[in-house]
Amino acid sequence: MINRSFVAALLSLATSAWANDGARADNAAAPAAAIAAEDYLLVRDGWAEDRPADWPRATSADSPAGFDIRRPDDADPPPHLGNDDENRPQHASELGMAGNPAAVNIVVGNGALGRLLGVSEESGFRLGGMWLGDASTVLSGGYEAGHWGLNNLAIIDLSLDAEKRWGWEGTSFGTQYLDYTGQPTNQLAGTVQGFDGVQATPPFNRSELYQLWWRQSWFDGTLITRLGKSVPTFDFNNVLSAVPVGNDASNIPAVTSLIYTPIFVNPTMFNRLPGYYDSATGLTATLAPVDNAYASYGIYDGSQAHGELTGLLGPQFDGYYFNIAEVGTTWLHGPEAKPGKLGVGVWHQTGDLKLPSGGVDDGENGVYVFASQRLWFQQPGVNHNGVSCFLQYGANDSDSSWVRQYFGAGFTAFGLVRSRPNDSQGVGMAWSILNDDPNAGHFFFPGAPGPSTALNSNELMFAGYYQAALSKWAFLQPTLTYIPNPGSRPDVPAALASSVYLTILF
Fold first, then answer.
1. Which of 49-53, 160-164, 210-214 is least confident?
2. Residue 96: per-residue pLDDT
3. N or C: which end of the chain has fewer CB within 10 A?
4. Please, is 268 exposed, middle or buried when counting C-beta atoms within 10 Å of its C-beta (0-12, 13-18, 19+)?
5. CA distances from 168 to 26, 126, 165, 182, 365 (A)
6. Which residues pair with 426 in a beta bridge?
7. Class of domain 4-505
8. Where are the chain's structural domains?
9. What gap in Å lies between CA 114 and CA 157, rounded to an integer?
């Protein structure tokens, strides 16, 4: 029988992605020429034409060998919903798209589905989405070497620019439908962190209203609010995308395409911070008083902390709330203007939280830090090719969580294969210090085999990938992951896992 995900996959024969919920004030500084030259792909495909006329732009001389960025007859490109900061990061991510865009992007796709159906973006409406197919297996070790986990994710996205449609200044609306069918892939390896970021919590067959929000820009973009059901992992602790600041020159593309779960949500916030695919209802507010700094606050339905599936439900607001605040900054380092960013956050989960050996904690607190930095440009001022890195840290204060501390780091190479200028490669490490309660294994992972009821003391994970841009709308990514000490029990054999993702944006 053909399911809804397969139908959605057939629709997804179109083009790139669109995201980032930051805002640029009208008087934001123009970017340095070195940054503008990196936009050769944007210019070539008509994705950057709506920037202010005084911003430097790439020319055909800036493009890598084999690319002609000139547009026939200088035709105007189709317009895009929202401002440049919202459009650019996912567009630029042709040089490194996020492994799972659904986990870190408020809006996905580029509206090709709408154009196919005759929905003009001049009307203010935009219809797009994505499809992701995932085949993963444990090659050796873990619990079930040789077995496969197959996952299928489709999202349909509808957005409305109310300013374009009705003249409502700074107002936009969005909604998404998510359809997921999959298998418990991560338990094949016995991992607690998750080597496959497409498979999250049960149930593994779900159709849901993933997002439904109203976004408002206030005071010329200095303050941005979003109210409704959304994915807070876009706004908080998002090491992948550019932070929401006013100066577009400070933003950088997706830092890595790693697929393990800790790259999308810090493990110290598992079952706390709403995200893929259990989004939640709440309010997000971001203040960007200057071009290279921001402060964000969010409060959300936190009922997933006691087992509610917020992605499948409407607002609960039953005494469990998740509060989070983050401040951050961006910079351009050195004469080559290498972009970097730093974010620091704190969070608080309210409610009675069950402990593995009985009893409850009255709420939970945590902190996190993330940073990224462009380390090297192969051809400064000419293209995006080069190397970036990232760092992550998190900690919490309660044994009601199965991860107590987390460290992460990685490197990404963009466009360094001469014959494949749009491909990227990367490596990453994720290391979690686990709950040391002697009953934590049975409490958090009751189905894991073995005589022990404890978790391992820690779990270390290494991953490497190659993301091949088959076109500007299709990406094929094999990933190899090694877990020397899977965490669900102390005696799980070291696991070597392989994953292949095919992502189609439309």
1. 49-53
2. 60
3. N
4. buried
5. 17, 17, 8, 41, 39
6. 412, 465
7. mainly beta
8. 4-505
9. 10
